Amino acid sequence: MTIQTPIDAIEADPAPRRATVGVDVGGVLVGGGAPVVVQSMTNTDTADIDATVAQVAALSKAGSEIVRITVDRDESAAAVPKVRERLERLGMNVPLVGDFHYIGHKLLADHPACAEALAKYRINPGNVGFRDKRDKQFSDIVEMAIRYDKPVRIGVNWGSLDQELLTRLMDANNASPKPRSARAVTREAIIQSALLSAALAEEIGLPKTKIILSAKVSQVQDLIAVYRDLSRRTDHALHLGLTEAGMGSKGIVASSAAMGILLQDGIGDTIRVSLTPEPGGDRTKEVQVAQELLQTMGFRQFIPVVAACPGCGRTTSTVFQELAEKIQNDIRVNMPVWREKYPGVEALNVAVMGCIVNGPGESKHADIGISLPGTGETPAAPVFVDGKKSVTLRGPNIAAEFQAMVADYIERRFGQGRSAAE
Ligand code: SF4
């Protein structure tokens, strides 16, 4: 029996990226066809210069291409140029974005060195001021952006949505013969808040090449609906993020599900994964997750991939789990150096497999892979290099020997004296 496969059924590519207007954020292009940019945000008090410099440096080293910092009061605004300067001295020119709420217009006016040091200003139209003050204070920040030649992100967040706009839309909805759900009206208010604010900024004189929009909500389905709609209604560059995503696996899954679907639709020019760290936890986790999301979906390559089987009853020893973890950790720790020393190393694929069922097959697909012996199998681990069996490792030092082989492979393939075959 033959099975006919319709050609459409085997297409596996994402939708083409939506065309957006590119925005230069301190030398990093967002939108305009540029690769999706990874960004993150500090959780230090910006006035604590040592802590902020250390965290920005860690985020940048982990791969964050833009870092946002809180600018909430005079002390933090005064610290911004010092943070910038200290980073420069460390050789780090990662663009810094100032996150402003309520008094951004005043802080930027009172601290010109802060306005200059920042690469972008983030404005939340929902809390830039209220009633008659709102447009004035919003305009002041936009004028400051024009004066200092900086882009802005108009970042709407449904936790701080413009209540006057929402009330107006709710009232109109209630009076309509076919009212929509309150949730749908709220989504519309979020989108309108972003679009109306962008229109106002452009009217004041800030060009579209200086405006990025975001419209963050905390529910996956709402985020997908909001951004699909927003991207149909504007060609502004879009910043994606699920707000209040949460801690641990919940935050990772929710952010990946929401942003994965949007990226697959071609929507999104920069992403931030808003994870709540464990107390004292590592802030760089959000950068790692953002990179892994983009890499697993095939949009960008940041770091070598380690394919490991999940393990099952055929391999009750922990050797392969330990080896997969060691290789993964080795790669992550060494990556900042490897990036410079071994150009192209991020394309490397390593496989660590638990038994003969899928081990040799998966290992052959990797650049270098090992198939460890499962329960009851001969204690031998064939290693495959570039699809061909290279050696069979035996004895108690299999893990260390394989690690050495991976290091050697990287040196040969990506090092200065890379083999002639490359
Ligand atoms: S490769 Fe072997 S050990 Fe790993 S999941 Fe498959 S059957 Fe189980």
From TrEMBL:
Residues that hold [4Fe-4S] cluster according to the record: C309, C312, C355, E362
Keyword Signal among UniProt keywords: no
Domain IspG TIM-barrel intervals: 21-291
Catalysis performed (reactions): (2E)-4-hydroxy-3-methylbut-2-enyl diphosphate + oxidized [flavodoxin] + H2O + 2 H(+) = 2-C-methyl-D-erythritol 2,4-cyclic diphosphate + reduced [flavodoxin]
Cofactor notes: Binds 1 [4Fe-4S] cluster.
GO molecular function, one term: 4-hydroxy-3-methylbut-2-en-1-yl diphosphate synthase activity (ferredoxin)
Keywords: 4Fe-4S, Iron, Iron-sulfur, Isoprene biosynthesis, Metal-binding, Oxidoreductase
InterPro entries found in the cross-reference section: Dihydropteroate_synth-like_sf, IspG_bac, IspG_bac-typ, IspG_C, IspG_TIM, NO2/SO3_Rdtase_4Fe4S_sf
Occurrences of domain IspG C-terminal (ranges): 306-406
Pathway: Isoprenoid biosynthesis; isopentenyl diphosphate biosynthesis via DXP pathway; isopentenyl diphosphate from 1-deoxy-D-xylulose 5-phosphate: step 5/6
Cofactor: [4Fe-4S] cluster
Gene Ontology process terms (BP): isopentenyl diphosphate biosynthetic process, methylerythritol 4-phosphate pathway; terpenoid biosynthetic process
EC number(s) on file: 1.17.7.3
Function: Converts 2C-methyl-D-erythritol 2,4-cyclodiphosphate (ME-2,4cPP) into 1-hydroxy-2-methyl-2-(E)-butenyl 4-diphosphate.
Family matches, as NCBIfam families: ispG_gcpE, PRK00366.1
Family recorded in the similarity comment: Belongs to the IspG family.
UniProt protein name: 4-hydroxy-3-methylbut-2-en-1-yl diphosphate synthase (flavodoxin)
Organism: Jiella pacifica
Gene for this chain: ispG
